[in-house]
Amino acid sequence: MSTFVRTVDSYVQGARTLPQVYYVAPETLEVEWTRIFGAHWLCVGRHEQVAQPGSYLVANIGIESVLVVRDRNGVLHAHFNVCRHRGTRLCNDATGKFSETIQCPYHAWTYSLDGSLLRAPTMLDVEGFDRTQYTLVPAGVAEWEGFVFVNLSREPESFESAFAPVIGRFARYNLTALTTIRRIEYDVKANWKLVLQNYNECLHCPTIHPMLSKVLPYTSGANDLIEGPFLGGYMEIAQPNESATVSGRVCGPLVGDLSGDDLHRAYYYSLFPNMMLSLHPDYVVSYMVWPTGATQTHIVSDWMFHPNAITHPDFDPSGAIEFWDVTNRQDWAICEQSQLGVVSRAYTPGPYSPRESIPAAWDRTYLRAMRSEA
Length: 374
What we know:
- By secondary structure, this protein is an alpha+beta fold.
- The protein folds into 2 domains: 7-38 and 168-371, Naphthalene 1,2-dioxygenase Alpha Subunit, Chain A, domain 1; 42-160, 3-layer Sandwich (Rieske Iron-sulfur Protein), CATH 2.102.10.10.
- The protein has 8 helices and 17 strands.
- The strands form 4 sheets. It has a 7-stranded antiparallel sheet with strand order 11-17-16-15-14-13-12, covered by helices on one side.
- Helix 4 runs antiparallel to helix 8.
């Protein structure tokens, strides 16, 4: 059973924000691509994007590109998006469906969906050529609660081990079965870490989010994950509100088998390094966070609902979508203001308060990852 603690109870004295170099230097991002995005499990999408045999999605991660595809037996594979002939990128479309095989557009080397090389024109004349030695290079792949993850490491930690603290934690929310109704993508002129740090605290909510603060009072919650790569907890939905929507009413059927406290709580978790997950009684919002430069970030947000919601007579997702789209844009705007400040010669690391214990914990996880050798 989860043990919740107030934010102030998990505060570590002396915690300070990160030095400027972590927010502005391209050299820092280069290290992050290797030690963080090249070494950890990354959320790249939802399973409905690759639900059918032959369906695929492409995840571009810095200079790397990974092709995630489901084979005819229903098995999910992840391949580096690189032909074994002369290195050509195999697929440029973000999503799609292969008929039977994957074919390089340059010289027509052809692979099965599991990555095996099937045909290599003219290579029969090359002495000693063994097509079994030229399979597509695999990447780690896993499915969890309807989300798809990849890992670029040569020897990735097993997903089950890496995600042990959260496996089964959200089962009652029926995440695997939820249907994505809306996706909104945002480009933010701020370092990706500012986005994660902002998500991990609500001290800013009264000044930045007047609509949210009426529904989710920032002092109302507690956290059950307070150290390590998974952080977060709950906030109380203030009565008479039923959910975090513009109207305050639920927008459709409950997402899962919820009862008791879950009916009047919203849960918010960050999953290191690039995922944020917001759970409400009637919908779930997920975020994938991708740096596109030292001071720029691309964010993909999905709003998910019960699979039968669309047939429910009272289903209206607009209130949930607008609630968080407005809130998100307020967050991104203040992150951009933060970025403008941290580039200044006047910036030095400032002290975290007890209400900011979770972003301080996120920083500690980040720094440990940056010190590791990928």
